[in-house]
Amino acid sequence: KAGVTQTPRYLIKTRGQQVTLSCSPISGHRSVSWYQQTPGQGLQFLFEYFSETQRNKGNFPGRFSGRQFSNSRSEMNVSTLELGDSALYLCASSYKGDTQYFGPGTRLTVL
Amino acid sequence: GENVEQHPSTLSVQEGDSAVIKCTYSDSASNYFPWYKQELGKRPQLIIDIRSNVGEKKDQRIAVTLNKTAKHFSLHITETQPEDSAVYFCAASGDTGNQFYFGTGTSLTVIP
Predict the structure, then answer these.
(1) What dihedral do alpha carbons B19, B25, B102, A98 form, nearest 10°?
(2) Of B43, B46, B100, the CB nearest to A105
(3) What is the pLDDT of residues B35-71, one digit of tens each?
């Protein structure tokens, strides 16, 4: 099976802009989770979608949102970007929320 | 919610020596504990996992132990090799559908 893919791999934006990141899970996987990774902070959980419904949500402001489509692909949107949003954004897919398999990540730089 | 603490944050060992990374968790309902290895510039990769009904699991040079009473679990790497150099993350999760909580990572350097 093909692994988890994420697009784009790199993004450069300026403060105040918005951005949309995409994640395609492993075929057959219905759960997609999103994480923010920054140096020294490890992996911070953003949210998880399962069968098009947000099932879990981390402690991030409302500027961070997501959705999942009927084919399990997921998108994450960040509005009104801030410098502190610069990070590696990882998505992970799993069959039903158990063992997670990560994508390569999207490196977002906010200038 | 769950809180996972991981120690040490950095670890250097000589090639051939053993490395041990420890994690503690706070929620007794957590029952699944995976370990991920992340090489520089790459995605986290699952290397081993353990469920709460098992005390120890081994896969070649890698082993994980779990102490449910003390709420801690550890990763053991024996006969370390330079290619083991990476950042290792522990995680904890409850029943299927619960979110994963990750430790802050351990940067392991194996010195040839």
Answers:
(1) 110
(2) B43
(3) 999 999 899 999 999 998 889 999 999 999 999 999 9
Residue A59 has pLDDT above 80, yes or no: yes
Q: Virtual CA dihedral for A81, A87, A91, A97, nearest 10 degrees?
A: -100
The two structure tokens encoding residue B86 = 């990476």
Indicate the pLDDT class of residue A100, thresholds 50, 70 and 90.
Answer: very high
Q: Are A59 and A84 in contact (CB under 8 A)?
A: no
Q: Does A45 touch chain B (CB under 8 A)?
A: yes
Contact between residue A88 and residue A105 where contact means Cβ atoms under 8 Å apart: yes
The closest of B6, B30, B33 to B20, measured between CA atoms, is: B6
Q: Give tens-digit pLDDT for B15-38.
A: 999 999 999 999 999 999 999 999
Nearest residue to B16 (alpha-carbon basis) of B74, B78, B100, B83 = B78
Convert the pLDDT of each residue in B70-108 to its tens digit.
999 999 999 999 999 999 999 999 876 778 999 999 999
With CA atoms as reference, the chain B residue closest to A33 would be B99
Q: How far is B79 from chain A (nearest CA, A)?
A: 27
In the three-class reduction of DSSP (H, G, I as helix; E, B as strand; rest coil), residue A83 is classed as helix
Nearest CA in chain B to A43: B102
Contact B43 A43 (CB under 8 A): no
Contact A78, A57 (CB under 8 A): no
